[in-house]
């Protein structure tokens, strides 16, 4: 049975890198041009074309939205050649559409793949997120703690003062009280305007990025992608879906979620081995953005497998058609 084909993550991961690379290359001409929609569309088209070349029976579980609102890469769309392992795919062809349009840091193309039925089918609602890097005891911090308590607990576990902790937070009015709570400890806050997948990943490389903890409310789809990345790099993450109305609760029900209050750990969002690829669109602290020179585009891709914890950074110099 085709369904029984093993998830050959070692080879598949290389194909996955081409998918995120292609999306980044396609959006290159739209960096800094003020047109979010066009940039997103270019990335979506390229990602889908490349994905369909992979020898997989893929189902998009985290995608561009419901079928009626997303003509491509919609949730439930079948992708791949139809041969090969049955897999779940989570993707965000352009994570940071506004960052791309404004040429601000940390826009990425992102995709994760895992055996069928092992990625949380998160609906397009918000998720309350909390993440820290590797090396801490399990549950040193939790979503049940106040922001202040989280900073204090992490500082204690790290053996430093609270003022030596840096927390990354999306700059949104909904986070005002949280920011106040964090500031009351003396901790530093790295405010970002968008891009919480990168925000969470920062925690896994605290020595490079200077970020110890991520917290706050952002997209649930981005939460599953971030959990996939942390599962490869190490680090802990928790997420709780939040709903603003019955329509959003309905979306969760449609996605098969029955316990609306559940707090998911990283491994409950991603229950088996996963592979993850992200390519830089604009410069960031995780990967460099697209570099343009006449006739060439260069991208950097972060490619990881949770089975081995392997992390590759791949530079791709790509000839572009000149007119
Ligand atoms: O802008 P909102 O509604 O606060 O949503 C936050 C979400 O939007 C983003 O900043 C940007 O996502 P997109 O570029 O894919 O739209 C995510 O990183 C984040 O999870
Ligand atoms: Mn996004």
TrEMBL record:
GO terms for biological process: fructose 1,6-bisphosphate metabolic process; gluconeogenesis; glycerol metabolic process. Mn(2+) 2 binds at residues 92, 95, 222. GO terms for molecular function: fructose 1,6-bisphosphate 1-phosphatase activity; metal ion binding. Its cofactor is Mn(2+). It catalyses: beta-D-fructose 1,6-bisphosphate + H2O = beta-D-fructose 6-phosphate + phosphate. GO terms for cellular component: cytosol. Keywords: Carbohydrate metabolism, Hydrolase, Manganese, Metal-binding. Substrate binds at residues 95-97, 126, 172-174, 194-196, 219. It holds the Pfam family FBPase_glpX. This is Fructose-1,6-bisphosphatase.
